[in-house]
Amino acid sequence: xxxxxxxxxxxxxxxxxxxxxxxxxxxxxxxxxxxxxxxxxxxxxxxxxxxxxxxxxxxxxxxxxxxxxxxxxxxxxxxxxxxxxxxxxxxxxxxxxxxxxxxxxxxxxxxxxxxxxxxxxxxxxxxxxxxxxxxxxxxxxxxxxxxxxxxxxxxxxxxxxxxxxxxxxxxxxxxxxxxxxxxxxxxxxx
Amino acid sequence: xxxxxxxxxxxxxxxxxxxxxxxxxxxxxxxxxxxxxxxxxxxxxxxxxxxxxxxxxxxxxxxxxxxxxxxxxxxxxxxxxxxxxxxxxxxxxxxxxxxxxxxxxxxxxxxxxxxxxxxxxxxxxxxxxxxxxxxxxxxxxxxxxxxxxxxxxxxxxxxxxxxxxxxxxxxxxxxxxxxxxxxxxxxxxx
Lengths: 190, 190
Description:
- With 190 residues, chain A is of the alpha+beta class.
- Chain A has seven helices and five strands; from the N terminus they run αββααβαβααβα.
- In chain A, strands 2-1-3-4 form a four-stranded mixed beta sheet, sandwiched between helices.
- In chain A, α3 packs parallel to α4 (118-126).
- The longest helix of chain A is centred in the first third of the chain and has 51 residues, at 3-53.
- The first copy, chain A, is elongated and about 90 Å long.
- At the A-B interface, α1, α3, α4, β4 and α5 of A face α1, α3, α4, β4 and α5 of B.
- β5 of chain A pairs parallel with β4 (131-136) of chain B.
């Protein structure tokens, strides 16, 4: 039975090798993901740069990626279009949905140069984006003068619109009630 | 001094009359505002109706009013345009800004058939809209199947994106940092 320790030794060696290979593979995968995320965030940063260079809006860029390919990229165009909703993320989501011909982006990743404001974050959520990678923190935008923390505060209040400067009135309106109840079965949820 | 009680009586009568007139005026003003709000909310309700009739989106309408005049009106077009951001409020804000040629709507009122979702509320705030009048509560939309409460929950968490299904990663990226610091003096705040 002299072969027993030999076989045992070979088995141990093979197992160790497999373990080393697995760990290595995991490390490479992690690095690959790091590299991919870093690369697409660079594109978002360059979009932000364009917004400032062309005086189109604030220094914010966004990129939407599917299966490693850029589906849409955009930068803030609030000043250019005089549209307060023309944030990089909103424009990128609109472009991505148009390019893919569908309402939701559940197979995509969004890269934003800066932490999105509550409007853009909510839009991401409505678009079913499952992953966000961002660079600068909201505080960096705040330091420049872009402050959207009051919006989050308004939504954070015990009632939805508390703490905002906006006065809110609710009216019990029969036409409004009708539009919901009458169309109960006709509504297509998206 | 027989005229003293006479003058006193006349003064008392005049004061009472002034008081009655003031109260009446206040009541009429309040009724006028009620009527105005109710009327514009009807327009929003009819916009919501159009969205369903034409299968363009959910039963949501919005109207933006300045000095008693409608500046913009819109309904949800998510299904028509396959754009998840095409909420009535967003479209109305975009139209109003375009029509007035400016980024902010601080002299306007927004009328929404339903309580806005967090994206639309944030957009209202970004547009500096100082007043919102709405009809149906968010629960009515929720009952139909439109649920945006998870978005508010996500923003409500102790960290901005807690409680959402979206994974969030922050990367410290030199290009992102540069875009902020390099352009510190060039940025135009809106």
